[in-house]
Structures are given as structure tokens and as C-alpha cells.
Design brief:
The structure is a single chain. The protein is of the alpha/beta class. Helix content is about 45%, strand content about 15%. It contains 10 helices and 10 strands. The strands form 2 sheets. The chain has a 6-stranded mixed sheet with strand order 1-2-3-5-7-10, sandwiched between helices. It has a 4-stranded mixed sheet with strand order 4-6-8-9. It is globular and about 60 Å long.
Length: about 260
């Protein structure tokens, strides 16, 4: 009998797809899924044909409902927390663009993974929240991402009440990039992924790393640092190709160099 993995990875049209694969458990994260997620990021990073990484959940009910509280997350809690924290850090600073396709419930640890992505497109039927407070916990690691995406008082209301948010509310708070009808979700995500695949891989890599690195720098230091990074990206083959293509009024042929 074929083993059913809690997370699966595959490549399609230059997109590395990471899919939470526990539909019956609303795609909750267990320790095995965490390890498979790290391996999927390794595979996508090492594969030059992968230009963008997409994240989603199996089925229509959930993107990811957070930790599986009854599925082994307490076997060695500290080690699991560290692996999840390492995943958030890696995903937030990942070298390739990341897009979350949120198709249902996105709660607790699932919110952290979603917020660590560069762009989030959500179905209007998706629901968001940090319910940890309802079971005597608190959204600790993901708080670092919430703090960087949401106004402080709105963030505190969300984490202290543990209430569920509609997709429109999440959009208004800055948690997601775009909300579309469920029937339009796949089309919207495919269109965005197509746009990103057509961009320069090396330009996006240097740009993403630069923006991540300068986030907490003082203004003057950030400007000087970004000036140096612009010189680096301008020296790439892709930049020269992009400028030449613009002058010649043709689509660029980016090669990631």
C-alpha cells in the first residue's frame, strides 16, 4: 500500500509546489510534515528549473490549521518548536519568491507559514486566526511575523481574543495580499505565478535578500546598503539582457545569471 505523506512536493511549470496533505485533519502540522517541509525547500532551492515556490493545502477546507495538538507535537515539544522556528526563518528569507494559495482555514502555525510567504492570495471563504489563547497557549514565534505585518493594536486584539477573521478582515489588516472568489482562486494564483516565473531569478534573489536584510536597519544605513545591492544586481547577465530587451522592444530571456 502506498504511504500517504503529510506533506508532498512536486514541480510543475517551473513552480515548486508544497502541499499540506492531511485533509482530514485540516492539514494540521505534525513533526513529519515539518521535516518534509524543510526537505522540500532544499529541493526547490537546489533545482534551477524552479523559479517560484507555491504553498497550499489539500482539499477545500483548510490551508493549514496549525499544529496537530493530538498528533505527536508534544513528543519532544522543545525540539519541534525549534524546527518550526527554523522553518519560519528560512521561509521568510528564502531565495526564491513564495506564494501562498489559501483555500480555507489558516490558523495558528498555519498563519505563521502564510505570513512568512512573500505574496498571499486567499479565497473569500478562507478564515484566519490565532486560537492558541483558547487552549492556554499563545502565538509566540508567529508573533514576530504578525508584528511585522499588522498594526500593533489590531494584532493584540487578534492574539488575545483568538477570534476567527473573515478573508476581507484579513485583507484590511494586511495579513493577505489579495482576496478572490473561490471559483477564481486557481486562475488568480496561476496568473501571478506565471508573472513571477517570467522575471529574472537572480534579480529577485538578490532583491529579496536585500529587502530582508535591510528591514531593521537605520534609514541611512539601509539606503547605503541597498545602493551596493543595486550595483550587484545591475552587474548580472539578466540585468544586461533585460535592458537590451527593453531597448529592442522584445520579451527578455532571463537565465538566472
Amino acid at each position: 500500500m502506498t504511504e500517504i505523506l503529510p506533506l508532498i512536493y512536486g514541480v510543475e511549470d517551473q513552480v515548486g509546489w508544497i502541499t499540506f496533505n492531511r485533509e482530514a485533519q485540516r492539514n494540521a502540522i505534525n513533526p513529519e510534515a515539518l521535516e518534509l517541509f524543510h526537505k522540500a525547500l532544499d529541493a526547490a532551492e537546489a533545482d534551477p528549473s524552479v523559479r517560484v515556490v507555491g504553498l497550499t493545502g489539500a482539499g477545500d477546507r483548510a490551508f493549514c490549521a496549525g499544529a496537530d495538538l493530538g498528533g505527536g507535537m508534544d513528543a519532544d515539544s522543545q525540539a519541534v518548536f525549534k524546527r518550526y522556528a527554523a522553518l519560519l526563518k528560512r521561509l521568510a528569507g528564502y531565495s526564491k519568491p513564495t506564494v501562498a494559495r489559501v483555500n480555507g482555514y489558516c490558523l495558528a502555525g498555519g498563519m505563521g507559514i502564510m505570513l512568512a510567504c512573500d505574496i498571499v492570495i486567499a479565497s473569500e471563504e478562507a478564515r484566519f486566526g490565532t486560537p492558541e489563547v483558547n487552549v492556554g497557549l499563545f502565538p509566540m514565534m508567529i508573533g514576530a511575523l504578525i508584528y511585522r505585518n499588522v498594526l500593533r493594536k489590531k494584532a493584540m486584539e487578534m492574539v488575545l481574543t483568538g477570534s476567527r477573521l473573515k478573508a476581507s478582515e484579513a485583507l484590511g489588516m494586511g495579513l493577505v495580499t489579495r482576496v478572490v472568489a473561490r471559483s477564481e482562486l486557481d486562475t488568480a494564483v496561476a496568473g501571478l505565478l506565471g508573472e513571477l516565473v517570467a522575471k529574472s531569478p537572480i534579480g529577485m534573489k538578490i532583491g529579496k535578500q536585500a529587502f530582508y536584510a535591510m528591514a531593521d536597519m537605520p534609514f541611512e544605513k539601509a539606503v547605503d546598503y541597498l545602493s551596493d545591492q543595486l550595483a550587484e544586481v545591475a552587474a548580472t547577465e539578466d540585468a544586461r539582457e533585460g535592458i537590451l530587451a527593453f531597448i529592442e522592444k522584445r520579451p527578455p530571456n532571463f537565465k538566472g545569471r
